[in-house]
Amino acid sequence: MKMQMNRVQLLSVVAGVFMFTQPTIAQQVCFMGGCNAMTTEFRNLELRPESIALLPPHASLRKKGTFSATEMVGKSRILEASLANALEKRITKLGYTVMLVTHEDIEANDELARLLSQANQRYDEERAKMPSKLNQVKYRRYTVGVEARILANYLGVDAIAFPRMQAVGATGAAILFSPTGGGQIHMGFSLVHARTGDIEAFFGAINSGGLFGKSLSSILKKPDRHMAKIAKTATKKMPAVTKALKPQQLREHKIRAVELHDEVDQDAVLEDLEDLLAEPEFAEDATPEEGSAS
Q1: Reported pTM
Q2: Quick check: is 13 in a domain?
Q3: Are strands 159-170 and 58-64 parallel, antiparallel or unpaired?
Q4: pLDDT at 260
């Protein structure tokens, strides 16, 4: 009986470890190391931005035990600030002009906060489709649409960068059971062009803890070090602002056509919508033709 109980307990441990070490969305996208995907127009400089607005990163920090994981919302801002600075340095080094948008900027500007909220919401909807189909960025499958174009026009930049990050720090026995060595940081950012509203490029990376793991305290005590490392890995394949890349092999029939737009006038967008709703097929009551019988 005692031996049977030990087996049950062992199976419970294995099941718990399996549950909390399954590949995350990050791993499905990048596996280990860096990953990237770019449209043809981004690669050949046709839609290569010169100026980029780097939005505040969205970071998720979790403390992982053997059988549970706890979200640490209050600690995320520490990593977000370090990641923003690390990405700004790396992207600037490649020759791009980077506008770093901070939480302070957003809190002081209601209009910016509104536009940013709309763009972030639309981007996260598209991002949810990307994990298993990152390669589809090449075919121009993902778009943030007019929300991104309005925000880019408001900020006066060629493109918007949307950084997202997941950081998991192991504690206790979870360090011993985790195949990633106890800790893992995944980060990725998309570049959305002001003239298309499409995701023109994605760059991401995963850094794991190694043999003895990356403890939660290590991540939080040295956030600049860990964020600099992940930013360096993610931008390793990001081309310099004026560097054209070789053409990539694509299936032509799968490529979504480029739709270029000039600067977005928010009032004009609303006027177009009002005109559309005023058309006969949208009107609730059709106007009787002149001379018709009553």
Answers
A1: 0.75
A2: no
A3: parallel
A4: 87
59: in domain: yes
Per-residue CA distances from 109 to 105, 116, 264 (Å): 6, 11, 20
CA angle 135, 233, 170 (to 5 degrees): 100
Contacts of 165 (CB under 8 A, 6+ apart): 57, 58, 59, 60, 79, 80, 83, 185, 186, 187, 188, 230
Q: Is 175 helix (H, G, I), strand (E, B) or coil?
A: helix
Q: Domain tally for the chain?
A: 1
Asked if the structure places residue 186 within a domain, the reply is yes
**Sign, CA torsion 10/19/204/79:** negative
36-73 pLDDT tens trace: 999 999 999 999 999 999 999 998 877 665 444 555 66
What is the C-alpha end-to-end distance of the chain, expressed in Å?
Answer: 92
Instruction: Specify whether the CB–CB gap between 124 and 180 falls below 8 A.
Output: no
Q: Which domain holds residue 174?
A: 24-276
Max CA distance (Å), the chain:
96
Cβ(155)–Cβ(101) below 8 Å: yes
Flag whether 220 is in a domain: yes
